[in-house]
Amino acid sequence: MKNILILGSAGQIGNYLCEYLQSKNYKVEKFDIVDGEEFDLRIYQNPLLEEKIKNSDFVYFLAFDVGGSRYLNKYQHTYEFIFNNCMLMTNTFDLLNKYKKQFIFASSQMSNMSYSPYGVLKSIGESYTKSLKGRVVKFWNVYGIEHDFEKSHVITDFILKAKNTQTIDMLTDGQETRQFLYAEDCVECLEIMMDNFSQTTENDELHVTSFTETKVIDIANYIASKFNAKVIPSKNIDAVQKDKKNKPDEKILNYWKPKTNIKDGIDKIISAMC
Asked: What's the pTM?
């Protein structure tokens, strides 16, 4: 039985991945700062982290100080945000190197957006990963159940607003498009990429996305219709991604394909959260 270590196990993707792998009878080791100070990846030479990495068969490096657009707008240019992510990457990659573990690093399609500190930090993580012959997966707007309003991403943000206030006040005009991927599809892909680790290389572009564009305003209107809520678009344009258009590499489709369309995914989140 594989011993799988999930760094960032309490996060949006981490929660789904833990449940999914446990259902497949893997031995799952959780590691997340929400479980106590001893699980802080920023601690230099953290003995608990070293023990967990040493005894693991595979590591998913999902941990990062990150949130949705509101969170990034507020914090990504701060010293604390940059420091937190630099420290957790340095300490973790050092131990992955020491014990020569196979691992996947969770990056973002924003890693080529040099105007974004978050994107730059993810790019640095990709460079670390490639130097250690790990695998980089680039997530495109993964959505799932979230309860931390400060860090919630756009879909759960809209659901919480519609549920609690019957009003979705948007940060933008909503005309920007995104490729949204349901978290259950995402974690299925992560297992497949672990199983096919030797079939890929550190230089492969592994984009984990739905490969379907959806306008953010259409998401808002659909969620509003479920709660008899109103949508109030802003006059602002997207300040985080600046509506930069990336095109996902389709190599990952050789191994996996997304299953859940956007409306079905949203309905599942609403059912679970409400």
From this structure: 0.92
In three state form, how does the secondary structure of the chain look?
Answer: CCEEEEECCCCHHHHHHHHHHHHCCCEEEEECHHHCHHHCCCCCCCHHHHHHHHCCCEEEECCCCCCCHHHHHHHCCCHHHHHHHHHHHHHHHHHHHHHCCCEEEEEEHHHHCCCCHHHHHHHHHHHHHHHCCCEEEEECCEECCCCCCCCCCHHHHHHHHHHHHCEEECCCCCCCEEECEEHHHHHHHHHHHHHCHHHCCCCCCEEECCCCEEEHHHHHHHHHHHHCCEEECCCCCCCCCCCCCCCCCCHHHHCCCCCCCHHHHHHHHHHHHC
Domains of the chain are 3-273 (3.40.50.720)
Which of the residues in the chain have pLDDT under 50? none
pLDDT tens-digit readout, 28-77: 999 999 999 999 999 999 999 999 999 999 999 999 998 877 788 888 99
Cα–Cα nearest to 249, from 111, 119, 62: 111
